[in-house]
Structures are given as C-alpha cells and as structure tokens.
Amino acid sequence: xxxxxxxxxxxxxxxxxxxxxxxxxxxxxxxxxxxxxxxxxxxxxxxxxxxxxxxxxxxxxxxxxxxxxxxxxxxxxxxxxxxxxxxxxxxxxxxxxxxxxxxxxxxxxxxxxxxxxxxxxxxxxxxxxxxxxxxxxxxxxxxxxxxxx
Length: 149
Ligand SMILES: C[S@@+](CC[C@H](N)C(=O)[O-])C[C@H]1O[C@@H](n2cnc3c(N)ncnc32)[C@H](O)[C@@H]1O
What we know:
Layout: H1 2-7, E1 14-16, H2 19-27, E2 32-34, E3 48-53, H3 64-73, E4 75-85, E5 93-97, E6 100-101, E7 104-105, E8 109-113, H4 119-125, E9 128-136, E10 139-146
Parallel strand pairs: 1-2, 3-4
Antiparallel strand pairs: 4-10, 5-8, 6-7, 9-10
The structure holds S-adenosylmethionine.
C-alpha cells in the first residue's frame, strides 16, 4: 500500500513494529520506520495530512478509540484519518489474539475489530467525526476529520 501511494506521488512513511514489514516496504523504495504507533514518537507529529489505517490495522492495540485518538494527534488541522473498518452488521470485538503460521505460534497480542456501524461513536470519542464512508470491492473505509474542523 505504501508503495502504491508513493507511486501516485504521495509522500509516504510506513510504520510497523515488525522488522520484516519495515524491510519489505523499504525494499519497495518507500520510507518506513520500525516504531510502535501507540508508544513511540513519530516524525512530523501534528503535521500529517493523512493517517491510513488499512487492512484491519484499526485493531492494533485492541482499543480502536485510543488508536484513533493517537492518529488524530498526528494530523494537521485539515488532516484526515482514513480507516478501513469491517462491514455493516459486524459487532465490535476486542481481546487477545495469536497468529499461527507454518506451525509457529506468535505470542499473544491485543487486537480489536471495529465495524461500520460503530465507527461514528468510537471516532467521536477520539475527537474525530465521520466525513464519509466508502465501499469499494466489498471493503469499507471511513474518512475521519478532526471534530474541531
Ligand atoms: C493486519 S496486519 C497488516 C497486514 C499487512 N497489510 C499485510 O498485508 O501484510 C497489522 C500490522 O500491524 C503491525 N502492528 C501491530 N502492532 C503495532 C504497533 N503497536 N505499532 C505499529 N505497528 C503495529 C503488525 O506488525 C502488522 O504488520
């Protein structure tokens, strides 16, 4: 995604806690940093035009309100959070998860699911409002703006 956005002419910075993800992004010629989006300082805080949380990443940390509030803190006054959410009718969940791959089990981590039906109130509690929601190919995205704007 970072590479696709960079190819469209956007200034892009990928963030991930996992070295492999950062390496794969850099291998595609795009800047990426190994950082915890919730706990670490990020470059240009308060000056981001867009914070993109796609592919279920709103589940990071198991607390979508806290993550959206963190993303909101990265933004310029006219910035936006673009967040992919689960579709209509999907109930919000939060808890511990583990990934299994080729017989290897990850350590547990906090994860959450946020759906279209609940993104408004959760965004509101995070200081954001829903500007629009868009469905594309069966995937749902909400565009969030700072409530102050
Ligand atoms: C749902 S996966 C993204 C999958 C990716 N789009 C792909 O196609 O492989 C979530 C990603 O969030 C990263 N992640 C989890 N917790 C994080 C945190 N606190 N800060 C930054 N990245 C985190 C994981 O390492 C993982 O790469």
